[in-house]
Records
---
Amino acid sequence: MMINAIGREIPEVVEGYGPVKSFAGAFATPPGMQRQAPAVKAARPGDSKLLDGLEEVFRRIPVRDGMTLSFHHHFRNGDGVVNQVLATAARLGIKNLKVALSSVFPVHAPLVEHFKTGVVTALDTNYMSGPVAEAVSRGVLAQPVVLRTHGGRARAIECGQLKIDVAFIAAPAADPCGNINGVTGPTACGSLGYAFPDAEYADHVVAVTDHLEAYPLSPVSIPQTRVDYVVKIERIGDPKGIVSGTTRITKDPVQLKIADTAAKVIEAAGLIRDGFSFQTGAGGASLAVAHFVRQMMKKARITGSFALGGITGHLVEMLEEGLFKKIIDVQGFDLEAVRSIASNPNHLEVSAGFYASPFNAGCAVNQLDCVILGATEIDTDFNVNVVTGSDGVIMGGSGGHSDAAAGAGLTIVVANLLRGRLPIIMDKVLTATTPGETIDVLVTEWGVAVNPRRAELREQLLAAGLPVKEIGELKAIAEKMAGKPKEVPLGSRIVAVVEYRDGTVLDVVRQAK
Amino acid sequence: MMINAIGREIPEVVEGYGPVKSFAGAFATPPGMQRQAPAVKAARPGDSKLLDGLEEVFRRIPVRDGMTLSFHHHFRNGDGVVNQVLATAARLGIKNLKVALSSVFPVHAPLVEHFKTGVVTALDTNYMSGPVAEAVSRGVLAQPVVLRTHGGRARAIECGQLKIDVAFIAAPAADPCGNINGVTGPTACGSLGYAFPDAEYADHVVAVTDHLEAYPLSPVSIPQTRVDYVVKIERIGDPKGIVSGTTRITKDPVQLKIADTAAKVIEAAGLIRDGFSFQTGAGGASLAVAHFVRQMMKKARITGSFALGGITGHLVEMLEEGLFKKIIDVQGFDLEAVRSIASNPNHLEVSAGFYASPFNAGCAVNQLDCVILGATEIDTDFNVNVVTGSDGVIMGGSGGHSDAAAGAGLTIVVANLLRGRLPIIMDKVLTATTPGETIDVLVTEWGVAVNPRRAELREQLLAAGLPVKEIGELKAIAEKMAGKPKEVPLGSRIVAVVEYRDGTVLDVVRQAK
C-alpha cells in the first residue's frame, strides 16, 4: 500500500489496472516526453468510405476480440450509437471488448447484459450513472473501471495510455468523405468536442450518421483526414435526451440562498469586472448562481470575456445579451446551446484537450476566473467526492470537475449542508474525486468555508460581510442536526480506479455491499 | 545509380540528403505504420506565453546551432517574418540552421547572405523563385535543398521525415494564449492552412503577430493547445505582397485560345454537370480557363460542389454567384480570397494535409473532378517540369502541382507550345516534377494531346471535334518552328532533390553553370 498526497491508501498494483502512479499534487507530476504516434493512413482517388450498416463496418476493420471501442457522450441520455454498436458486437459473437465511452447514462443499461455475457469486459469513462454504475459497483466486471476526468481522457488518448482501436463517432451530419459536424443535421447535438481526441488518435475511425450531406460538409468539426468509414443508420440518437439533469433554476429557497451567497463570494473576490470568465454546471443550484451573477454583471455594466464548459441556454442568453463576448463549448447541455453553436460565430466548439487537458500548451480551464461545482461529499481538507453516493454506490464521476477546479482562479463548491438526511462534510470523503488543494470555497446554507490556503480570500469575504466559518464548524453544525454519518460497509474488491487528470491515482472505489 | 519508375537516373545515396527511396509510381509506395509522436506540452494556470521580442524567444526556447526552424508562406512575396527571425539568429551568432519554409519568394533574398555566412546551411521547401532559387542553383549550399510538394510537406512533418524544432507562425491575429487566425487582424492573409502541420508537430511553436486580441480569439485556426509563445512585433508582412504572380485574366490571344480549348476539353469529358469540382492556379491562362468554365456553368445552369486550392477573387465570385457551393482554401492568392474566407461560412479553411497529403484517410484533391496546371516543360511521357527553367536554373517547384495532378479525375496542363523561343515538349524534361501517369491532357495553341492511358477520354475529345494530336506531333510542330532545344550544360553537383508527395525521389537538380 502507498499513501498518496491526499492521504488515500492505494495498492501499488491494482489487478486489472496495473502499477499505480500515486497522486502527488495537482501540478506535481510532469508529463512524459512524447505523445502517442497515431497510425498513418492512406487513401486513393476513387476510394469510398461509405459502408452498408454496422456489420459491414465490423467486418471491414475487422473488429476482433479484445479491442477497445470508443464513443463520445454528446447525446447523453439520448445516445443511440453505443447500444447499436455493442448489439452488433454481441450478434457477431465478439468478446472481451473494452468500451471507452466518455460518459455513461441510464440509456446505456444494455451494457450490463454485455458485461454479463463477456462481450464487454472493461470500461473506461469519466462519469457514470444509472444501471451500469450500479452494476459496476456491485462487482459485475472482473477488471476495475478506469474513471478519468474529461481533460484526463484527452490526455490519456493523446499520450497513449488509452489506446483506441476503433472510434465510433455519432455524427449528426457527415459527408461521404467523413467530414463531420454536430450542428447541421436533424439530430444536431452541438459541440462534438469530446470526440476530437478519439478521431485524431484511434487506429480506425467510423462516422455513424443518420444525415449524409454532399461533399464538402461545412462546418467541419472532425475532418475527413482521420475518418476511415462512414455508415448511415436509421437514427443515431434523440437530441431531447441531451437535456438530462435539471436545466431550470431551482425554486428551492435553501438552494437559492446558497446560490445567492456564492454570487456574493464571486463579487467579494473582485471578479465582477470586465473580462470576467465563468463556468457553471447544469444543476439547479449552479444555474441559480449564474442567474445571480447575471444580475450583478448587468448592474455593474461589465462585459465578461467567456463562459466555458458544458453550455446551457442560460449562458447562451448571457452571450446574446452581451454579458460575455464568447462561449467556449465542449458539450451542449440543452437544445438552446445546440441552436447557438450552430449559428453564432462567437460560440466556439473546442476539443476536450483544448477544454481541459493538463498536458498541452495550455487549456481553457486555466483561463477561468471562476467555476461553480457541486459535491456529494467534501472533507475537512476540502477533498470532494462526486463519484459515490452515501451507500458507496457509484452515481457520477469527475467529468470536468477536477479539471475546472485545478484551472480556475476561484473554485466554489455549492452544496446543502445535508444531503438527504446525511451531512455532506466528513473527516474523509468516501471517494476522493477532486483534491482539496484545488477547492477554494465551500458555500452552504449555514455559512461559507474558505480553504486555509486562501487566507487573502478569507479576508475579502469577511470584509464583504459574508458568513465565513471554519469547515470544521460547518461539519459540527451538520452533525448536530443529523448525527455523524456511519461508515459505509464496503467489500475489499476494487471496482474502479479514480485517476486524476494527470494520470496519477487519486483513489479507488471498492465494491458496494 | 538507380533508375526510377519514370526513367530518371538517381544516385542511391545523395550526399547531404541520405539514402534515396526511388519513385515507384504515383500510388505505388505505401506509407509507414506510425505518425511522428509530437512533444507533450504542459502549462499551469497563470503561465504567460507573451514574450518581449524575437531575441527573448530565441533565449527562452533556446534556439541552438543546427536546429530546424519552420515558416509558412501565406504572405508570399509580402512576408516579413522569415527575414526578421533569421536576422535575429544572425545577430545572436547562431549557425547551421535548417530553414523549412513552405515556399520561398524574391522577398526572401536575405537568405542568400545567411547561406554565405553559415547561419543557414539547409533549406526544405515546396517552391522557390528569385535570388534564393538562383543562388541555390549556382551551388551556394553544400547540402542539397529538399523540394517537396505541398501535400508531401504535410506528410513529411506528420510522418516524421521533417522534424521541426521551432515553428515560427506569422499570425495576422493572436490572443495571449496563442490562439491564431489569419482573418481578423489588419494584415489578414486568409487561410493559414500550410502552417497547421508545423503547429501540430513542432517541438516549439511561436506565434509571431502584429495584432493581439483579447482571449479567446475567434475564429481559431491554430489552437492554443500547441502554441508555446506569443510575440508581438511591429509588422509581420504586407498583405499586398500576397498578390504576386498574375491574378488577371490574360489578354494574350494565344493564351485565350488555349484556355478556351481547355474549357472545351472539360466539357467534352462530361464534367460540366451538377457537383463539378475544380482547381486552377493564379496564372493568366489558368484564370482564363476559369473564366470560360464559368460561362459554360452559367449556360448549363449547373451548380458545382467546390473550388479548391490557392484561391483567387475569380473563384470567390463563382462562389458568390452560386456556381460553387463551397470553396476549400489552403492559401489565398489575392485579397478577395482573404475577404471571402473572413466572412463567408461556405469558404472553408483547411490544413495542407487536408488539401493534399497522400498519407491520411483522404485529402481534398482526391475529390477533384478537374485541375488546370501549368508547365515549363513536358516530355513525350507527359512528365512535367515546373522546377527548372531552360537554363537549368531553379525558378519554381511543385507546390500543389503533383498533388492535384495525382488526385484529380481530369488533369489538364495548359501551355504555349513555345516558351520564349524554345519548344516546351521534350524527349525528356530537364527536371521531372510531376509524373506523366498523373497528367491526362496537354492543351496547346496547336492542338490537344491525350495521355495514351486515357483512351476513352481521347475518344470523347475527338467526338467533340477538338484538335486531338499525338504529343509527338505537337513536339514536331514546335521543333519545326524553333529547332530542337539544345542540351543544357550542367555541373555534376546535386543542388536539389525533388521528392514526390509520398517521399520517394522523382529527380535531382544539378548545379547550373
---
Amino acid sequence: MLDYAALAALAAVVREGSFERAAQALHVTPSAVSQRVRLLEERVGCALVIRGQPCRATEVGQHLCRHLAQVRLLEHDLQDVLPVAAPTAERARLPVAVNADSLASWFAPAAAQYAASAPVLLELTVDDQDHTAERLRSGAVLAAVTALAKPAAGCNSQALGTLRYLAVASPGFMARHFAEGVQARSLALAPSLLFDRKDQLQARWVRRQCRKAVPLPCHLLPSPQAFVEAGLAGMGWGMQPLPLVQPLLAAGRLVELVPGTPMDVPLYWQHARAASALLDGLGRAVLAAARAALG
Amino acid sequence: MLDYAALAALAAVVREGSFERAAQALHVTPSAVSQRVRLLEERVGCALVIRGQPCRATEVGQHLCRHLAQVRLLEHDLQDVLPVAAPTAERARLPVAVNADSLASWFAPAAAQYAASAPVLLELTVDDQDHTAERLRSGAVLAAVTALAKPAAGCNSQALGTLRYLAVASPGFMARHFAEGVQARSLALAPSLLFDRKDQLQARWVRRQCRKAVPLPCHLLPSPQAFVEAGLAGMGWGMQPLPLVQPLLAAGRLVELVPGTPMDVPLYWQHARAASALLDGLGRAVLAAARAALG
C-alpha cells in the first residue's frame, strides 16, 4: 500500500503552493511535511514536487494527487454504508477543469446548485476547451468539460451538446472595416478579439471562410465578459458564444460578419472512471444543465 | 545598439509560444528565428527563452520584450511627427495586467472604448491584484491595475480609488451555517468561496473579524461571474466586489455576513515611465472610468 499520510502531505503542498502552508493546513510541522514528501519520493523513485514559488507537482506527482482525490471520494461514499465510518467531517474535493465560456454561461449555475447541497468542495480551474483534457490526462483534475470526444486513459466521455459561436462585431465596426465585404484583405487589417494565445476559433473561422490562413491583428481579452464588452465597444470582431450574445444580436447591438456562418464546438464531459456517488452526482447536474443550454 | 530584428524574433517566440509559429508571424523560416534568438543570447550572455510547450521568456528575456514594446510605442508616437515615418500599418501592442474583478466590472468598457478608436492592440492578462505588479516588474507588461501603491522600478503609480468587497452569502446559506452567529467555530465549518489559490481576501476578513487565523473549507471558482452565481446558489460565502453584487444585495438575494464590515482594496494604475502618447491615452481612459466606478 502507498503511504496515505505522505500522499496527503504531497497533495497539501501542491494545493497550498508551499511546505509551510501545507504544514499549517495539516496541523503538523513543516519538517514533518517535507520528510513525508521526501520519503514518498524515495519510495516511488522520482521527484514529485518542483520546489518553487509556488511549489508544483511533477507529472508523477499529479498522478498521485489524482489517485488520492479518487481514494478520498471513494472513502466518502463508504460513509453512507458503514455505521461507524472514518471520523471525518471533511468534505470531498472535486477538482474539475472547465472552459471559460461554459463557466461564464451554463456551467456555473449547475455546478453551484449541486455543490450547495452535496458534501463536496469544488476546485474549478479554467482552460481552453481544447486543453482541459490535458489536465485530466495529467491527473490534475478528476473531470473536465472538453472539446475532445476521445476519453483520456481511465476516463469516460459523455456528449454534452454543442456550444455555438458566431463571428460578430458592432454595426459601427462593420461599417468601418467591412464596408467592402469580409474577405482575406479586410480581415488582415481589421482587429480581431482573441481570448488568449490558445484561442484558435477566429483563425478556424477565417480559414473556413477564406479557404486559407490569414494573419489576424488581435487584441487579447482573457475574460468572457470583457470579450463581449470589447465587441460592443467596436474594439474588434470575434467568435462569441451564442448564449452570451443572443440578446445583443436580437437588439442589433452586435451583428454577424457573414450571416449564417456559425461554428459549433461539441463539448464532452470526461471524468475519471472510478465510480463515486459524488462525482456521478456532479456529472448528472452538468449533463442536465448542458442539455437545457446547448444545441 | 541592440539588434532589433533579433529582439522582434525573441518577442514573437514568447508571444506565439513556439519558434514555428513565430516564424509564420514574421514571414521567415524557423531556423532564421532560432538563429536570431541564439545570437542575441550569445550577445547578452544568458538564456532568453525557456524552450518548452509553450516557450517562455527568462527574466532577462522578459525585460528585453518589454524594452521592445516600449521602443515600438515610441516609434508609433513618431509617426505623427515625421511626414514620412517607417512604413508600418502595424498597430502598437499594449500588454497590460488587470485583476479579474476590475476586468469584469469597470475596466473592460473603458479599455474597450479606448482601444476601439486608438491604433493599438490590447494584450490583457489577468492576475490577482496583489500579483499584477510582479508582471510589471518582470517586464511582461507595460502597465497594470494593482493593489501595490509603491511604483515598480522605472514605473509611475497613480491612485485609482478603492474597490469595496463585502463578505456575503445567500439568506438560505446564512440560516444553514450561521444561525448561531458568525464566529471562528461556524466559519471553520461553513464552505467559503475562493477565487484562486492566491486569493487572500476571505482569510484577511476572517482574521480581522475573529482576531485570529481560521482554516476555511473552500471551493475554488476562478471566474467573477461563477463566483457571484455560487454565492446566489448558496454554495458558500465569499468576499464579493460591490459593483458586481449591489443589485443582488438590494433585492435581498445576497446578505452581508456581518453588516457594515466591508474591506476596501485600494487600486493603482502603474505604468512604464517612458512617455508614450498611446499608453498615456489608455491611462487617462482607465483613470476616468475608475473615478466614476470606484470609491
